[in-house]
Design a protein that fits this description.
The complex is a heterodimer of chains A (480) and B (489). With 480 residues, chain A is an alpha/beta fold. Chain A is 36% helix and 14% strand. In chain A, α3 packs across α4, α10 packs across α17 and α12 crosses α17. The relative contact order of chain A is 0.14. In chain B, β4 and β5 form a beta hairpin. In chain B, α2 runs antiparallel to α7 and α10 packs across α11. The chains are: A alpha/beta (480), B alpha/beta (489). At the A-B interface, α4 and β1 of A face α12 of B.
């Protein structure tokens, strides 16, 4: 392996045995691994991962049996084993409507290597409670999506992946080779500002949990969020169902669980406090953290809303110019002005920033673009490009366009094989990128298939606060 | 590389074939060129509404004569325009080749004079189309009513090419002026009919009151200008939620929007079907037709099927046996009625795969391009019932009919019912919940076309209903006289 003298390294065998340790390498180290070596590590680790998961994860054993795959001889064997988004929400919606959380637990059991058969969730009354119940009684830390027509997808992340989540987040900000940000010092000393909710089980809140645990020994005072409250999975689910019901003319048929109605007043108070909270947040960050180097994170629309709010309050360039900026790409269905990134950079006080790409199903959900605008995945991601129409795999060489899939080798307790809904152009790592990084890379023109096929009723994670608010309005109108 | 087709713009007998803009068919299919409609925007609307009068020089028999001649010319094997439309549709339609072929072969039937007469008489009433229909009212008025043609834009659906030919027939019968906006999955059929008409009778008023155009739905540069009360009186829109919502924004006083919006259909099979082997076979054979006809491309195809098998162990066993029978019957349908599909909807395939690997509560029979039967093992339809297509039915066992009756919504169009005697028992309740058509099992796809549709009478709404009132002063004194003696206390 092409390491610099004096830098810690890991052998090929060590990485095959523990691919989650890729994030212990610097960006320069992990993206200097020659392609042949990388292929060897990935194939070996993929084979190991399959062998251990196929025994313990029911959905994988069923799928492997269906597809007649007993072992991983080459990468192509894993292609038919990628699970589409629909698998992670394949429970009946009535489970949520009727509060059948024992059934939901049995369903989740099929997705994870943890044995949940002894767990009795029959007393649980809401999704939020169920998530808390799993947090309290198992190593599982479920991550959920914002939900399509009310069905949230649940990914059974667990504690064993949390350190990787935190370390990978730090690597997001690190440059390669001679790039100016290759030396990443003092990450642990930087306050963290996040545009969004602090609590809940969506990716961002779970990420903050992992960072606080790993870097700050559980001391939450390092984190400031625009909303310290919880993004409720129940409210999100109702938001999605509400939208679906409106479109189907079934508004009157929406069922709201009594346990949720009981929380109605709390929701309403929470919503009423929203404007005050935002003001307090601005006062706080613009005085206490003014001019400081911080870590700031959010989605593009969330950050844009903050930037606009700041501008109305006459605040620009709030933080130091070497602040670390973590913004995932995509306007998430919202129409934003062309210069939105310029306005966000101005609000933060940095000359510019690069966007990230990834998905919540990856242990490290985001990968920052290289200076040439390409997204390089950390080497624990084994990429696939699948023909959207035929389902066939594209050759694992050159540049391929198609549906993006991956196996995340840093996942330890569920089968991390996932087929996304994104159409990408992906260049395999036959040659390194012109920026110097080895490995596969995704070009920046990424589209969702659902958008191409006319209409996308998915409420994306940036749409989540909107859906949340709409649902709160609805709950407020429901009389008990 | 497939041929590049040209979809001409037809404006009242004039054919414009400039290949200004190129479009791709849906699902990565065929591509075609079309003139830029923006260049012809001032020609497209009927400038003088009074020119509809020339249609009123025709008697209904004249219209039938025209239809008869068109019927003769619409023979698929002898009409190169239809053949070309068929070739293009092979690359754009959701229908497979055998189904498309049959559809084009049958298309002429909608111009057959006997059918046209019955259609016009039962949907409007011939006297109202031919002249003023008078009667005496209790207030002394002699009231005369007549159904008059209107200037209309028809935004037609492309799941079946028959939508285009039916629209042309309707327009002729109603003596209206139609601008047909064709869909990308069937861009050429309406133009093929129009070209046949132009060759047949270039100056005939029926030919001169039909225009056909393709533009990308939602193109504001065209629609903002066209959808104005000075240009059109009626918009008849078929289509999905997004396209209807989009068109709805053009509604204003002077424009009547008639939506034939997305609907879904279902089936209720009563316990009688499960009381004997013969009845079960009969119901399965019929069920397969309702699911499979035209490969489940239409709103009237069955999707969710409630079966009164019971939900205990024996009931579920009956449901699964019935599922296998329906699947077998589906595979045995003749190719002119139903075939394995060309393209399986990827989203649907994923949902089915997810149930296959994750669910204990669904049994999946078949799969892939041959279609599938998903038998729920509880009384719940699959959550993705809305996207069922490609010959995939979802059988839902129930203990009684309360669940199916309560599951009906305003989006429910057809309900196939077995046995027929059950129809009369439950049809009122189903209708109160929103269902719009009840039909004997096995006949869901056999539309009579002449009656109500989607709970409305679209043909009657496509007309303008004009009233004339005549009073004889000798019988009904003028108000100044009759109110003169009114005293106010």
């Amino acid at each position: 392996m092409n390491m610099r003298p004096g830098e810690p390294t890991l052998s090929t065998q060590e990485l095959i045995d523990a691919p989650e340790r890729f994030v212990d390498l610097t960006i320069t180290q992990m993206h200097s691994i020659p392609n042949d070596t990388l292929q060897e590590i990935q194939l070996g680790a993929l084979r190991n991962h399959f062998r251990s998961m196929v025994e313990s994860v029911p959905v994988l054993s069923r799928l492997a049996e269906d597809q007649g795959i007993n072992d991983i001889r080459d990468f192509g064997d894993a292609g038919p084993l990628l699970l589409a988004h629909s698998v992670y929400k394949s429970y009946p919606l009535s489970v949520l409507e009727d509060g059948r959380f024992d059934q939901l637990t049995r369903w989740l059991d099929k997705l994870t290597a943890h044995d949940l058969s002894g767990l009795d969730a029959s007393q649980v009354q809401s999704i939020d409670e169920w998530i808390d119940f799993l947090d309290a009684n198992t190593p599982i830390r479920v991550k959920h999506s914002s939900g399509t027509t009310g069905k949230l997808s649940f990914v059974p992340r667990s504690l064993s992946e949390m350190d990787t989540v935190a370390k990978g987040f730090m690597r997001y900000f690190q440059g390669f080779g001679d790039e100016p940000d290759t030396q990443l010092d003092g990450f642990k000393t930087l306050p963290i500002v996040h545009a969004g909710y602090r609590r809940g089980a969506m990716g961002q809140a779970r990420l903050l949990d992992a960072i606080v645990a790993y870097f700050h020994n559980g001391d939450d005072s390092w984190v400031t969020t625009s909303n310290p409250g919880r993004l409720s999975a129940d409210v999100l689910s109702i938001g999605g169902r509400l939208q679906g019901a409106e479109q189907r003319g079934e508004h009157g048929k929406l069922k709201i669980a009594p346990s949720l109605l009981a929380r109605r007043d709390a929701f309403i108070r929470e919503q009423a406090a929203s404007a005050d909270r935002t003001r307090a947040f601005f006062n706080d960050i613009s005085t206490r953290l003014r001019g400081q180097r911080i870590v700031i994170s959010g989605t593009v629309p969330q950050m844009f809303d903050l930037a606009e709010e700041a501008r109305r309050n006459g605040m620009t360039r709030i933080f130091a110019s070497d602040t670390l900026v973590h913004i995932a790409g995509g306007s998430k269905g919202r129409a934003l002005p062309d210069d939105c990134h310029k306005r966000i950079a101005e609000f933060i006080g940095v000359p510019s920033y690069r966007l990230g790409y990834g998905m919540t199903e990856m242990v490290n959900a985001t990968h920052r673009a290289c200076p040439l605008g390409q997204y390089h995945f950390r080497p624990n991601i084994v990429p696939f490009v699948i023909d959207h129409e035929t389902g066939e795999q594209r050759p694992r060489t050159g540049t391929q366009r198609g549906r993006f899939g991956f196996v995340d080798l840093a996942i330890k307790t569920h089968w991390g094989g996932f087929l996304t809904g994104d159409e990408v152009m992906l260049t395999y790592g036959d040659e390194p990128c012109a920026c110097g990084r080895s490995g596969a890379r995704v070009h920046p023109n990424i589209r969702r298939y659902s958008e191409q096929e006319g209409g996308d009723d998915k409420i994306t994670c940036a749409g989540a606060p909107d859906a949340h608010d709409r649902a709160l309005d609805f709950i407020a109108q429901v009389t008990e | 590389m497939a041929a590049l087709y040209n979809v001409p713009l037809i404006i009242r007998g004039r054919i414009v074939a400039d290949p200004d803009v190129e479009f791709g068919g849906r699902g990565g299919g065929a591509r075609f060129t079309a003139p830029d409609v923006k260049k012809y925007l001032s020609d497209l609307p009927l400038a003088a509404p009074s020119s509809l009068a020339e249609l009123y020089k025709l008697s209904f028999d004249d219209i039938l004569e025209y239809m008869n001649e068109l019927y003769q010319r619409m023979v698929f094997g002898q009409n190169r325009h239809l053949q070309e439309a068929f070739e293009l549709a092979r690359g754009t339609s959701g229908l497979t080749e055998p189904l498309l072929r049959r559809t084009y072969q049958l298309m002429r039937d909608c111009f057959e004079p006997g059918f046209v007469r019955e259609f016009a008489d039962s949907s409007i009433g011939l006297p109202y189309l031919e002249g003023w229909v008078s009667k005496r009212m209790r207030n002394g008025a002699k009231v005369s009513v007549r159904a008059l043609g209107a200037r209309a834009v028809h935004v037609v659906a492309g799941n079946s090419p028959l939508v285009s030919s039916m629209t042309i027939m309707r327009n002729a019968v109603l003596r209206s002026d139609a601008i047909i906006k064709t869909p990308s999955n069937d861009p050429l059929t309406a133009a093929a009919c129009a070209r046949t008409m132009i060759e047949m009778a270039p100056d005939h008023p029926i030919t001169r009151h039909l225009s056909v155009a393709y533009w990308k739905g939602g193109d504001a540069a065209i629609e903002d200008a066209l959808y104005q009360p000075r240009n059109v009186e009626k918009i008849i829109a078929w289509g999905g939620f997004a396209s209807i919502t989009h068109i709805a924004k053009y509604i204003q006083p002077g424009i009547d929007l008639i939506t034939l919006d997305p609907k879904l259909s279902s089936t209720i099979i009563g316990r009688a079907a499960f009381e004997s082997e013969a009845a079960m076979e009969d119901a399965a054979r019929r069920m397969a037709i309702d699911i499979g006809s035209n490969n489940q491309e239409a709103c009237l195809n069955a999707r969710v099927v409630y079966i009164e098998t019971g939900t205990d162990k024996a009931g579920l066993a009956r449901a699964n046996t019935f599922g296998q029978k329906v699947y077998d019957a589906l595979q045995a349908l003749p190719p002119a009625l139903s075939t394995p599909v060309n393209r399986v909807d990827p989203q649907l395939a994923e949902e089915i795969q997810a149930l296959r690997v994750m669910s204990d509560q669904h049994r999946i029979i078949g799969g892939g391009n041959k279609g599938a039967i998903v038998v729920s093992q509880t009384s719940e339809p699959v959550d993705f019932a809305r996207i069922l297509t490609n010959r995939v039915g979802n059988l839902v066992p129930v203990d009684d009919l309360e669940i199916p009756i309560n599951s009906v919504t305003a989006y429910t169009q057809t309900i196939g019912i077995y046995p027929d005697s059950l129809k009369a028992q439950i049809r009122d309740r189903l209708a109160f919940h929103g269902a719009q058509r009840f039909v004997s099992l096995g006949y869901a796809a056999r539309l009579s076309f002449a009656g109500p549709h989607d709970g409305i009478e679209p043909l009657r709404r496509m007309c303008k209903w004009i009233i004339e009132e005549e009073y004889d002063e000798a019988e009904v004194p003028l108000a100044s006289k009759s109110y003169a003696d009114f005293e106010f206390a």
